[in-house]
């Protein structure tokens, strides 16, 4: 299937869509659960009835193997099913059961109400789960939503625009395409929530723009997600799972294993295991047709990765070959020091630096000296080591003995910490992100005799009565 050049929406079209979605939300159209479930069902049909076209589009953009793409779309379908089955339960008002005795008749309740008109700015590397995933959460929450996918994945972005217009209610949901000017215009509008996935540099621009309107923002920014190989790790299995994680989308994944801290005495054994699985994954080499090895998104990203490899002081064990400006072979680099060129920024490509360390204390010091990653991968079977990492390190997620599998657990929140972002989404947590918790009380008129002490004139007696409450004994420890 071939795709024409991506057409960017005009600024007037963007403003028109924004006003239409505002009008829809104010009319209350998206709030009924029957409407939400129908739109979620339509989103599921969109994926199921256009699987081949969706695979072809991302294949054109990234050369991504169909198996990886269908896995991404499986995440969307799983989220749709989960939301259809649970949206009414998620949105059910919650009575506040534990209140002081004198407030028990006030019917204290927390209502789950949609934020309003929300904006999703998605990335190019996983165009479906990171664009349609937040969209399904907005639908479940009862919001209207604009999704702005990346212009760096034009085939996928164009197809999502066409399919969403065909399957979803255009008065409530819209895909708007463009580049920097169009995104800048979107950010000048007043949204009720913005969810952004991308680089830290762009994330700061999004946050600053949102601050002008006091708009809440969720940022998923990635970062250098490290792998730690503990002394007791199964080196063979760790090598297989790390290499698999690094190979996803040619390393262009926000939770891709970025670099590996390995005991100095075990670096050679770990390399031997990596090479064993390298040969098993790509028996004819990564550039052979049978390998289905994807491409780097564009020549500038390709050039950035080549430049990093040219500057490293580490030793290339395997890889380092280029296929024009399209692909880079998976590359293993050993004896990388903490201040090496490969450690300066998130790699976002198929390069795996191995950083030898002397002990776990040095590893923890190095981890705490770098920016907080989106995920930390730890290979160990030691409960003591696990507890050390839970208590002494920071990350958005901690994964034991695997890489990237946390993305399959849509029942858990997904998000970063500090440098890797803030806020969370995934499954119910996307619903929560786009939902306002509206507090409610109904103070009965019959309570008036008990409220006399709050009214003026203020007297010494009223003061002493209030002070007695403040001075009452604290609960015993």
UniProtKB/TrEMBL annotation:
InterPro entries for this protein: Ald_DH/histidinol_DH, Ald_DH_C, Ald_DH_CS_GLU, Ald_DH_N, Aldehyde_DH_dom, Aldehyde_DH_NAD(P)
Active site location: 220
Aldehyde dehydrogenase domain residues: 7-438
Keyword set, alphabetical order: Oxidoreductase
Presence of the UniProt keyword Oxidoreductase in the record: yes
SUPFAM superfamilies in alphabetical order: ALDH-like
Keyword DNA-binding tagged: no
Entries under PANTHER family matching the protein: ALDEHYDE DEHYDROGENASE, ALDEHYDE DEHYDROGENASE TYPE III, ISOFORM Q
Family: Belongs to the aldehyde dehydrogenase family.
Protein name, UniProt field: Aldehyde dehydrogenase
Organism (species): Rhodofomes roseus
């Amino acid at each position: 299937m071939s795709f024409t050049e991506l057409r960017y929406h005009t600024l007037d079209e963007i403003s028109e869509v924004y006003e239409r979605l505002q009008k829809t939300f104010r009319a209350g159209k998206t709030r009924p659960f029957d409407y939400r479930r129908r739109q979620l069902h339509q989103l599921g049909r969109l994926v199921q009835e256009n699987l081949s076209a969706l695979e072809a589009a991302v294949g054109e953009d990234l050369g991504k193997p169909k198996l990886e793409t269908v896995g991404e779309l499986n995440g969307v379908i799983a989220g749709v099913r989960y939301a259809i089955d649970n949206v009414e339960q998620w949105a059910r008002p919650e009575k506040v059961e534990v209140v002081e005795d004198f407030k028990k008749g006030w019917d204290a309740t927390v209502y789950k109400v949609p934020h309003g008109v929300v904006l999703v700015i998605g990335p190019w590397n996983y165009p479906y789960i990171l664009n349609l995933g937040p969209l399904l959460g907005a639908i479940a929450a009862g919001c209207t939503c604009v999704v702005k996918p990346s212009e760096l994945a034009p085939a996928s972005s164009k197809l999502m625009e066409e399919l969403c217009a065909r399957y979803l209610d255009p008065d409530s949901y819209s895909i708007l395409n463009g580049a920097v000017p169009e995104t800048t215009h979107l950010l000048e509008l007043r949204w009720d929530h913005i969810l952004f996935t991308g680089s830290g540099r762009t994330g700061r621009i999004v946050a600053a723009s949102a601050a002008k309107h006091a708009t809440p923002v969720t940022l998923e920014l990635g970062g250098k997600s490290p792998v730690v190989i503990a002394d007791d790790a199964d080196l063979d299995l760790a090598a297989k799972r790390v290499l698999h994680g690094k190979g996803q989308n040619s390393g262009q994944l926000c939770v891709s294993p970025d670099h590996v801290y390995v005991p100095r005495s075990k670096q050679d054994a770990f390399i031997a295991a990596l090479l064993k699985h390298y040969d098993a994954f790509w028996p004819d080499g990564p550039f052979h047709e049978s390998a289905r090895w994807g491409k780097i998104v564009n020549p500038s990203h390709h050039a950035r990765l080549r430049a990093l490899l040219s500057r490293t002081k580490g030793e290339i064990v395997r890889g380092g070959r280029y296929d024009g400006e399209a692909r880079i072979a998976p590359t293993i680099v050993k004896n990388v020091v903490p201040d090496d060129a490969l450690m300066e920024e998130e790699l976002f490509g198929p390069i795996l630096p191995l950083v030898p360390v002397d002990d776990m204390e040095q590893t923890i010091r190095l981890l705490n000296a770098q920016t907080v990653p989106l995920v930390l991968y730890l290979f160990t079977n030691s409960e003591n080591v696990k507890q050390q990492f839970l208590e002494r390190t920071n990350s958005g997620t901690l994964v034991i003995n695997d890489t990237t599998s946390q993305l399959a657990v849509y029942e858990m929140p997904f998000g970063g910490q500090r440098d890797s972002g803030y806020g969370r989404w995934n499954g119910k947590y996307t619903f929560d992100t786009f939902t306002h918790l509206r507090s409610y009380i109904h103070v009965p008129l019959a309570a008036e005799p008990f409220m006399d002490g709050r009214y003026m004139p203020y007297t010494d007696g009223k003061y002493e009565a209030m002070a007695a409450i403040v001075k009452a004994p604290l609960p015993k420890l």
